[in-house]
Amino acid sequence: MKNAVSPSEAIERLKRGNARLLSGKTEADISPEIRKETFLNGQAPFAAVITCSDSRVIPEYIFDAGIGELFVIRTAGNTVGAGELGSVEYAAEHLGCRLVLVLGHDGCGAIGAALSGKQTGHVAAITDVISEAAKGAEDERAACIMNIKNSMRVLSENIPGITAAGAVYHTESGEVEFLQT
Q: Which domains does the chain have, with CATH numbers?
């Protein structure tokens, strides 16, 4: 197994990375040398991140992480189904990831679609999960947090040996708000 990092250390690294982003003092290594190094020797991500497919939500940027540091899984609304579970299981078993961060964000179109009513087609596979998770939510923020917590629950119930954490990315400020577990 690769360089396994404890869940608490992984959260601290994510927090430090976001602080560097906010201060404008980024350090992420995206050089040709690290690209070649990870090609030859493989990746060693310190955390897995399940986040929304929204083009404004870029985990490597948000957490000032370089090539090979995060195992990122993207799906509209950061929902967790069989494909996401398989990806997390792979990250845990083959790459040593012990932390899975579910990263939602404000202004999420999938959350808005779920709150606006019944969707059709394949979009409903996402919005139905969010609608169920966010039952009783009074606003978009509450629905976002309920959806994150639902994804955390699904992960914890299905992947032994991992710690699921949650956070909300504020797209305007760039700040990540970590949720209490």
A: 7-178 (3.40.1050.10)
